[in-house]
């Protein structure tokens, strides 16, 4: 139970939160050696080894669990594209003007040239077809027999980048490129002139790889003690050839928060409380690492309280919280922790690993506090706000400490099992 | 313990976090650089549907929402 001396103890722990240490962690994870940390890459493995060392450095017993990941998209050469309006050739920039759509077949790294046409209106044979904004990609295939490929309009982000996704549709039978909306509109207008052409490559393959979660056990709970699990995914969408995507906020920032919170809680929790960390892989390919881990927890009937951090880079008015499983008690503690640390919270989507843990019945909260440059080259370390990481880390530390100090509050009258 | 009077915590019922609406991202946390207080409206967006859908499908994305997003070619799933 809470005593009069405990707030001071909590505040002493909160005072240990170091923004500088988290900034350094993010800078390391976003560095060139880790290549954007896509699952199954050397950069991902290097990040994993580094994280294991960090956990060992704070006294954790570290293990690694592997799992298969199939058909990860891999742009294996820098794509090339240009278009010609009939008079002038316009060389286009990969990542800004266009990107390779996940539905694209691998058509190699040599560009294919042909006249531009409009899907549904022009003879597709030998043409690159612009898919009208009102036409679904699936419908465009109906009009694409013999076409060189399809060009789909897609909005770019506020920094002018196409963001990269690894989870999405399977490859179809044609090259498919995403084209920035404004350029797409210009191309549609140019088709009317009859002389416009397009030339592009679409070097994208699917690779089967092995993902790996990093687990660190810092403390073991007594049989009736609270067990805390802090999680964050360490993988990113990875670099493209010639295009760095350092994944600083998503989710270097979450990893940094968990590292720091674990370091502090490991030394500051009561002796009967358990504490472990899971840095999971394969989130960007469908939260596969957390699915693997959640399955393991279910099989062993372990029931930790799960706190997942996905993005601690850019706090605006409040941090988003999505909860699942029997989490009423955990939410009450989170709320109390947020009131103590002064962090506004709002119920909002955190579509990440937290859903995997909740899906197996674990009391889970996912916390998201914003990202700049989502899945793009603009997700750089300098755009991760230290004060946001400090705020989220303080929240996690306070939540862990309060949960451990007053475990009776974690049960409720509406079905929580703890 | 004495809580600080500093505007922290949920503005409403914390249990609202158990039934949040959908998301603008797919299989990853959406960008939330301008997250504002508070506006859970119970409606799913194109992708990925609601958390309940995702949970029911044992996935981070609801299949129907994902199919819609893929079919529209509008972005978040590719």
From TrEMBL, chain A:
Coiled coil: none annotated. It comes from the Bacteria. Pfam families: Peptidase_M28 (PF04389). GO terms for biological process: proteolysis. InterPro entries: M28_fam (IPR045175), Peptidase_M28 (IPR007484). One of its GO terms (molecular function) is metalloexopeptidase activity. SUPFAM superfamilies: Zn-dependent exopeptidases. Residues 213-398 form the Peptidase M28 domain. This is Peptidase family M28. It comes from Asanoa hainanensis.
TrEMBL record, chain B:
It comes from the Bacteria. This is Uncharacterized protein. It comes from Asanoa hainanensis.
């Amino acid at each position: 139970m809470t005593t009069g001396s405990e707030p001071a103890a909590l505040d002493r722990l909160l005072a240990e939160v170091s923004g500088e240490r988290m900034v350094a962690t993010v800078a390391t994870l976003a560095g060139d050696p880790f290549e954007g940390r896509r699952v199954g890459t050397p950069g991902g493995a290097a990040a994993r080894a580094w994280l294991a060392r960090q956990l060992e450095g704070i006294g954790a017993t570290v293990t690694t669990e592997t799992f298969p990941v199939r058909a990860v998209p891999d742009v294996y050469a820098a794509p090339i594209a240009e278009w010609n309006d009939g008079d002038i050739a316009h060389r286009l920039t990969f990542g800004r003007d266009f990107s390779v759509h996940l539905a694209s077949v691998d058509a190699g790294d040599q560009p294919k040239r042909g006249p531009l046409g409009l899907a549904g209106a022009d003879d597709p044979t030998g043409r690159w077809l612009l898919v009208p904004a009102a036409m679904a990609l699936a419908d465009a295939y109906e009009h694409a027999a013999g076409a060189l490929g399809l060009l789909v309009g897609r909005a770019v982000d506020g920094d002018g980048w196409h963001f990269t996704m690894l989870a999405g549709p399977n490859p179809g039978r044609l090259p498919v490129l995403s084209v920035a909306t404004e350029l797409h509109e210009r191309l549609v207008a140019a088709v009317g002139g009859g002389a416009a052409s397009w030339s592009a490559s679409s070097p994208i393959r699917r690779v089967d790889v092995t993902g790996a979660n990093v687990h660190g056990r810092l403390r073991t709970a007594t049989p009736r003690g609270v067990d805390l699990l802090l999680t964050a995914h360490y993988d990113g969408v990875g670099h493209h050839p010639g295009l760095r995507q350092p994944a600083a906020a998503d989710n270097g920032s979450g990893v940094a928060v968990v590292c720091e919170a674990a370091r502090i809680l490991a030394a500051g929790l009561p002796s009967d409380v358990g504490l472990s960390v899971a840095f999971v892989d394969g989130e960007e390919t469908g939260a596969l690492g957390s699915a693997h881990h959640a399955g393991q927890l279910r099989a062993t009937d372990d029931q930790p309280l799960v706190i997942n951090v996905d993005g601690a880079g850019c706090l605006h008015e409040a941090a988003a919280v999505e909860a699942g499983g029997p989490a009423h008690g955990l939410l009450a503690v989170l709320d109390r922790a947020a009131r103590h640390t002064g962090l506004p919270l709002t119920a909002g989507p955190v579509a990440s690993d937290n859903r995997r843990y909740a899906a197996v019945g674990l009391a889970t909260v996912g916390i998201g506090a914003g990202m700049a440059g989502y899945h793009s080259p603009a997700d750089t370390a300098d755009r991760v706000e230290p004060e946001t990481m400090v705020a989220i880390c303080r929240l996690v530390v306070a939540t862990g400490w309060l949960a451990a100090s007053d475990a009776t509050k974690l049960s409720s009258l509406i079905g929580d099992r703890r | 313990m004495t809580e600080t009077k500093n505007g922290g915590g949920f503005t409403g019922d914390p249990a609202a976090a158990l039934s949040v609406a959908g998301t603008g991202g797919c299989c990853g946390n959406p960008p939330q650089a301008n997250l504002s207080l508070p506006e859970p409206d119970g409606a799913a967006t194109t992708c990925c549907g609601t958390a309940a859908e995702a949970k029911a499908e044992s996935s981070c994305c609801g299949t129907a929402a994902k199919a819609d997003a893929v079919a529209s070619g509008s972005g978040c799933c590719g």
